[in-house]
## 1
Amino acid sequence: MVSVILRKKSIGYIPGPPGKRDIHEMKSHFIFMDDFKGLASTESNLKLLLNTSTEILKEIGLSIGIDKCAVLKVKRGKVVEMDGIDVAACEVIKSIHNESG
C-alpha cells in the first residue's frame, strides 16, 4: 500500500547523472521486516515522503518510532553533515552524524 501511494505521488529519488535520469527508475523506499528506508532527492521531498508514509501507517494501526530514526544526507556520492530534519508533530529526526559522535 505504501509503495503504490508513494509511486502515484512521484515521491523519491531518481538515480543517475542529470539529463540521463529515467522516471521509471525512481526509488522511494525499501522495506525489510519492520525497517523502512526512505529515499528522496530533496529535504522537502523527504518530509513529504515521511509525512505520507506516517499517515498511511496510522491508517493501518502502525507508527514510526522517531527515536529509532536517523537521516543521512548524501550529495554527489559524499556524505554531507546536517542537523536533522523536522517532521510532523514537532518531532525531529536526528542526523546520523549526531548519533555516532
## 2
Amino acid sequence: MAEYNQPISSFSPETNPSKGPLVGAVIIIILLIIGGIYVINSKQGSLDVSPTPTPTPSASEEPTPSLSSSTNLNDVEKDLGSISTADLESSLNDLNGSLGI
C-alpha cells in the first residue's frame, strides 16, 4: 500500500528536460533583433532625400485669364482660345530636365 501514497508526477528529478524549445526561442529572438536593426538602418538611408524646390512663375509668364465655369461648347472653345500655349514646349522640356527624364 505504500506505493499508492506516492504523488503522481510526470517529471522525475533524474531526467533532464529538453533544451530544444529554449534554444529555438533564443535563435528566433536573435533573428528578430537583427532584422529590426536592418530595417531601421535601411529606412534611415532613404530619409536623406533632399526636397526639390517648388518652381515659381517667372516675370515673363502671363497670368492665366479667368475661365468660365460654363459647360457650353462655345464657352469652352472661347476658354481654350484664351490660353497661351506658345512656350508650353520649353516649359515641358524644363520640367523633364528637372525630373531627370
## 3
Amino acid sequence: MAAAVTARLAQTDRATLRTDVRGLAGRLSTITALCQSVGAGGNLIPDAYVAATAIEHSASVAALDTDFARLPVTVIRPQARIDTSSSAAAN
C-alpha cells in the first residue's frame, strides 16, 4: 500500500512538494494510515492527500466528490448547483 502512495505522490507537481518538505514526512504517514484504514488505492490516493492536509490544519474539505465520504474528514458540499445556461439567465 505504501508503495502505491509513494508512486502516486511521485507524479505530483514537484514544485508543490518542495514548498512543504518539512510537513511531507508527517503527511505521508497520515496518507498511508488513511489509505490503509479504508483500503484505498488508485483514484482515492489524491483524495487521501487532500484529506491529510485538511486533518493537519483542522480544516474541512469543500468538494462534490463523494469519495471523501470514505475518509475521516469533514466535507462541505454545495446545496444546489447554479445553472449558468442561457435559458436560465433569460428567465
